[in-house]
Amino acid sequence: MAKNSAWNSTATYEDVSHQVISSYFIGPQAENLPYFKENINIILDELEKARKNYFPEDGKFIDEKTQMTPAFVASTEKMKRAVRTASNILGKSSIPFWSPRYEAHMCTDMSMASLLGYFMTMLYNPNNVAIEASPLSTVAEIEVGEQLCELFGYNIDPDNTEAPTGWGHVTCDGTVANLESIWVARNLKFYPLSLRKAFDKGEALDFLTNSFYVENCQGVRKLFSALSTWELLNLRPSDILDLPDRLYQEHGISNDFLSGVMNKFTIQSTGKDVLERAFDTKPCQYMLATTRHYSWPKGAAIAGLGSDNVIGIPVDLGARVDLDELEKKLRQSLKDEQPVLAVVGIIGSTEEGAVDPLSGILALRKQLQAEGLSFLVHADAAWGGYFCSMLPKDYRPGDVINLPTEMGECDGFVPDASLRAQTQEDLYAMRYADSITVDPHKAGYIPYPAGGLCYRDGRMRFLVTWTSPYLSRGSVTSIGIYGVEGSKPGASAMSAWLANKTIGLNQEGYGSLLGEVTWTCTRLSAEWAALTDASSPFICVPFNMLPSEMGPNPTEEKIEAEKKRIRREIVNRTNAEITEEDRKRAEDAKAMKLMRELGSDLNINAFALNFRYEDGRLNDDIEEANYLMQRVVETLSVDSPTDDPTKIPLFLTSTEFSDELYGKCKAHFVKRLGLEQSTHDLMVLRNVVMSPFPTDGNFTNNLAKILYDTALAETEVVRKRNTLAPDFHSFLIQGTERIYLIHLPMFHVANHRQQLIVSVEFDRKSAEKYVSMKRSYPSEPMILVTQNKTMLKDVVENHGRFKAQIMTKESGIILRDIEVVIRHTVVSRPLNSKYRLKDYPANFMPFYLYGSENEANIDHVITRAPNSQLSAGRCKLEWYKSQDPAIWNKPLVLLLEDVREAPMQPLPPNAEIGSKNGAIIAHRTSNLEDPGLKNPLGSNGVVKALPGANQNGGHNSHQNGHNNGDTGEASSPLDHPRAHREDESAKPHKADKVVTSETRSGAVKGSNFFFRPGATFKVGVWEDKDRSEESSKFASFELGKFVGRGTLTLGESVYVDSEAMNFDPFKKVEKVSEWRYEFDQIGKELE
Question: Percentages helix, strand, coil for the chain, rounded to the nearest 5?
């Protein structure tokens, strides 16, 4: 039988479900474009009829003669050229969302129905702010709201009094829908407080003080006026919404009268602060998983709640909210009487496709209401909402769904897959949530912008109603009076309506489409799970654990055996073969049963890579695993106009797991990857599956091979950068009394990933020449370079000997064939990520201190990346109290106690600092000199500390308007140097003025950078606690014995380089180009 496409091995004539789904889209190869064009022509024909039929007696306003004029023709031709150019550029540079090779973000081919609905309505440009500007598209939006409410299980029949009547509307996106839900929750929570103010003595409703009763959330009937503030804040949502109607039914209070009364007290008028002060309440909280979308803290900030009151609840190992942790937080709020506005259940997290246990959240609310705590429950189903179409109309929790499959005798067959049982139950539970966010422009295959918000009880929308006379002249059918937005395109509503109507929000429509997509996602999950084995140069680990990992006593053998089964029964089989072979298997042995347990809850595959060294060892450094994944995702994505999307064979994206957001979930994933635990974020690759086509003909094998080959190529690069190999090494030379070498490290090369300081001896002749030149050119950095490639460890072990040469950037090689002998290792510490710290020092800047009382040298402690080389030789350290010279034989750490490192990092580029070849030359101008400081640079190249002076190189102020803590105001006792002088505590001193980092203006020579020759700092010195421990924490945060305090003045030999140690020689060269260039090409056609 002949192939019917590039990927099907045989025809798909008997797979009816897939045939219908294939008709929804233009197609990856524009297969259905003729049908799309046909419909576009119909729309244009109807547009022509509409215009010509509206008062045809008016006659033509643009006649043929006008159309033939040179100016008219030139204008139309110019537009045609611009359109062709723009279309061509879009075609070449747009991301191919339509292709099954695109597996990155929540973007895909849009349905033809949605595109046609948008296009036909766009031509008329209705504004759904008011019905008089959008009669048809307003009705479309109302119907979309009803379609979505019905999809989620809300009641939409106003005659059905067994349940509240749902209501929904279209928003521009999920962020605005979430914001509106926050607005509603806030207003609902405060409505009883506002109404209670109207019952105060002398107010309009005080006559009801002794006659209006309500039930608190524990079911106790009380006078409304007698409720405590806590009880008012915890009425059940339905009881709050009933209050206006009950006042009317029981006491005849009309809505018009009540609205007039409430204008004075409602939170919409007064703001929440007034009500919080009046009732002495604590700030209200929102609770949801730490993996929440950024729109939640953003919405809380806009609504005046503050993002700090969005309380993140830890997630479990599957990135779903941990119900036990949620209960702990809620019970703490109950104990502390801190109101909770809402708990959000995420129905398909954007990074992992995880579905929170919504049914458990709803059950927890019921339990806590009985104890006095009530809150709204919102379902953020921006991604997962449309998956409700996969549930049969008669589904009930506990039902087992095995979706029907029509299998033809062909490889092009694409089955439907059902969801996990727990996911089905949580989708079903959405009917009990108070409100739901959904994004038709995600799993609805509808163009942007199309979000949505649905309320279980439609009366909630009146909590955020705003009217204006010019909008609708009082019409209650206008959509624009509800929610956040004003003007909004009717085209979005019409697009969603037509797609929902044409495809169908049921199991046969969207349910079947998403069922095939779920199958595709499962097949890709299987590909990632079985991509590598014990012999592979790298490993691919799915975020969602395999069944063998979750079972009792998981072992590597069990996991590898299951991966082999996945390869044998799934990866290496076509769809038809899988289903045919399953017919012969027992229920528990079916491949499709195993497939149902693979991957995420809702069609997002998260996975991570790690590499093996050539000897088979698995890398244990999280930063290097991240580096591998960063290179892979850079290869398989677009981040510049110079990247050609048509040359990228597979699109993936990435996210990051941090300790703060993922906690034990991240720690567990890190362990599964064979990495050491780290405070560094873990990079995670992800693919969102939206196309039903990749498994049609088993195309998923092609995609998996692309990822494998890409990861294999990048593994070779990462291995190279992490393989210790001989190389040339460079050292900054310090000192003349005793010579020290400071290794110039590089984070991105294994053999240079070391902070090393050693004291050495040169052969006599070379030493004499070096000392002579150093004294003549004290500010010019002299760099010693090994003469042959060598291993760094060989340089330092056993008092190593090696040959070297000295060079400067200004003069090249100035001394050759130097015999170097290492006498003492001051510091030798690796700079791998596991030895670095999570944060830069917040209250000081640490340095290694070595040398002698006549010639002190310092080198910056590298605590984390990125970082900068800050070194100074021949400094003058003046103690407040005299010290035994023997102290210089100890391993010492010096803290600049008037410098805060964390706010400065990362330090700016060398050009901005004013560093020239590493050298810093202090900038001086007459108006900046301290007249009281005579001849600050002495013959020995140091600045003497002056008691009581503003000690920073003699500068009281600086060119760029900053200062070193001198505000010009009266000094407190702590501002005076004596406060530092008198501090004998072993803790770092924090009370002094702070030296600010300054950069050159570009208009002057020299540098105002804080770390410059002649700068004086207030310092504390400690013995290093444990220099054999390779972490930098001992040289900064776990200090040893306190030595003393004083001032340190930098000599002329100051070296600053903020670039070299951060340079990545393996980084792909980025071609510099501006995005705007492409638009310039279009603009030229219009000139």
Answer: 40, 20, 45
